[in-house]
Design brief:
Number of strands: 14
Radius of gyration: 20 Å
CATH class of the largest domain: Alpha Beta
Order of helices and strands: EEEHEEHEEHEHEEEEHEHEHH
CATH architecture of the largest domain: 2-Layer Sandwich
Number of domains: 2
Strand content: 25-35%
Number of helices: 8
CATH topology of the largest domain: Nucleotidyltransferase, domain 5
Helix content: 10-25%
Strand order of the largest sheet: 3-2-1-4-8
């Protein structure tokens, strides 16, 4: 029997996301060197098409009848963090389900849950769990499309773990897998996803709400204020990231929605994002002092390098643009717009077959 987490080592692999009538996809094939050659990637919008008509359009792209791994976009699920219940591993999901039943945004019986330990288990005092909670209706939408496309959907992943996989691959490439790395991905104009990983595991994640038009703003203007000089107009933002120094403070921390207030007088909207990012990095320094950040990277499509320069200047630490071209031959040949939208899907190709997430 081929278990759901067993990777095919030959043939094409199709990774898809499907939300709000928009399909993102990456079609890749593992080469003899173990790298994934990108055969195609793109974004298709259903528009006013019926599901049947849309499926015919996708079939014309050569996407019918594939072995598929799905990836949920952040707006499709909640990413919670709780204290790990003291139960046997086989009872972990059931215990987590009980603990988060008042925290999810739908009835718990209408949700699918999975759990992932925070960190690598080597640091005492951080016994936490990430809980992914997704409405069954969201999963059903993907399965409905898969039925039309005759897809064999073996696994459904989420963006945070996909980012972890990419960070881990870059760290291993640099022989720094045991160091902590941060990655901020901006794949649209609504929300950024920050992840911090080390030793191939996810330690911290946070979602940063973006102000309208963020990706068309000028971030490097002369009037931009650095984090250290945000001035009188600064209005404190509710800290919803857990402080691990307080026992139980993380219970119910919800990373599915930010709480950034962009209405503060005198604050440029993009500077508010900068402040929230700085707070997240400061939290890491306080909470995981034994794992100082080794690198900070950003992925923001064509503006990745510009964002890296802006953050390097205003955060006061080196920030690099994420470059995965060496891991995925053929990726740079694709149109920039498709690459920005589909970029997180690449991490699913690197999924470790021994993980549940």
């Amino acid at each position: 029997m081929r278990w759901p987490w067993t990777r095919r080592h030959s043939g094409n692999q199709l990774i898809v996301s499907w939300t709000g009538g928009v399909l993102g996809y990456v079609l890749a094939r593992a080469n003899a060197q173990g790298a994934f050659e990108i055969k195609a990637a793109g974004v298709e919008r259903r528009g006013d098409d019926s599901l049947e008509t849309f499926a015919h359009r996708l079939a014309s792209l050569g996407l019918r009848g594939a072995s598929v791994t799905g990836m949920l976009r952040p707006e499709q699920y909640q990413f919670l963090q709780i204290d790990a219940p003291k139960v046997p591993p086989e009872e972990m999901r059931a215990a987590a389900r009980y603990m988060v039943k008042e925290l999810v945004n739908a009835h718990i019986d209408d949700m699918t849950l999975d759990v992932l330990k925070v960190g690598d288990g080597q640091h005492k005092g951080h016994e936490q769990l990430f809980v992914v909670a997704v409405a069954n209706a969201q999963v059903r939408e993907m399965l409905d499309l898969s039925d039309r496309m005759k897809w064999d959907v073996r696994t459904i992943d989420v963006q945070e773990t996909a980012q972890r996989n990419l960070q881990s691959a870059i760290a291993r490439q640099a022989q720094r897998a045991d160091r902590a790395s941060a990655l901020l991905t901006v794949a649209d104009d609504r929300q950024g996803v920050l992840t911090i990983s080390a030793n191939d595991e996810l330690f911290l994640t946070r979602r940063l709400d973006l102000p309208p038009g963020f990706m068309t703003m000028s971030w490097m203007g002369e009037g931009a204020a650095a984090v250290g000089s945000v001035g009188q107009g600064f209005v404190p933002v509710t800290e919803y990231v857990p402080d691990y120094a307080v026992q139980g403070a993380s219970y119910g921390a919800d990373y599915s929605a930010g709480s950034v207030d962009y209405s503060a007088a005198g604050q440029e909207p993009h500077q508010r994002v900068l402040v929230e990012l700085q707070r997240s990095l400061d939290l890491w320094d306080r909470s995981w002092s034994a794992l100082p950040l080794d690198s900070v990277r950003v992925a923001a499509g064509a503006r990745s390098q510009e964002m890296a320069q802006w953050l390097t200047r205003d955060l006061g630490q080196s920030v690099q643009a994420m470059d995965v071209s060496a891991l995925f031959p053929g990726w740079e040949k694709l149109p920039e717009g498709d690459r920005m939208e589909c970029w997180p899907l690449l991490g699913v190709l690197l999924r470790n077959e021994t993980r549940a997430l």
